[in-house]
Design a protein that fits this description.
The chain has 1 helix and 7 strands. The radius of gyration is 28 Å and the shape is elongated. It is mostly beta strands and about 130 residues long. Among the domains are: about 30-80, no CATH class; about 80-115, no CATH class. It has a 3-stranded antiparallel beta sheet with strand order 3-4-5, with no helix packed on it.
């Protein structure tokens, strides 16, 4: 939503001008960079804080000079990347044995289910999948 400015001059205070801004970023909000997977936050001992982001430079990290409210490259730090989900996912395949094509209910073949452990090696050992 684009922001807009409305000037209001109340009747008792004809010399004063009140300005209302609609749809702008609220003051004092936290930057979304603090919860982004791409952002690096460096905090000093005296409450200093520097946010570094790879989206601000062509290569490497660059400082972000303001609090960010919206970003096209934002990825929440508590949501895994697609390749991370693929590495931790169990693969379940159902294979039908028997003839291919249409058949009545009595002539259906056996169903074979194959479960494959995730590729990730940091999982605890589990019981056999049979």
């Amino acid at each position: 939503m684009p922001w807009s400015v409305t000037a209001i001059s109340p009747a008792p205070f004809k010399n004063m001008l009140q300005i209302k801004i609609h749809g702008a970023t609220p003051k004092g909000g936290k930057s979304i960079c603090l919860t982004c997977k791409k952002g690096t936050v460096v905090k000093g001992q005296n409450c200093q804080e520097v946010v570094l982001c790879p989206l601000f430079s062509g290569s490497g990290l660059a400082p972000v000079p303001f609090k960010v409210a919206e970003c096209g490259g934002y990825h929440p730090s508590n949501v895994p990347w697609l390749h991370e989900m693929e590495n931790m996912a169990w693969t379940v395949e159902a294979r039908r044995r028997g003839s291919v094509g249409f058949a009545d209910g009595e002539r259906l073949g056996e169903m074979e289910v194959v479960v494959t452990r995730p590729r990730s090696s940091n999982l605890p050992p589990s019981a056999p999948t049979e």
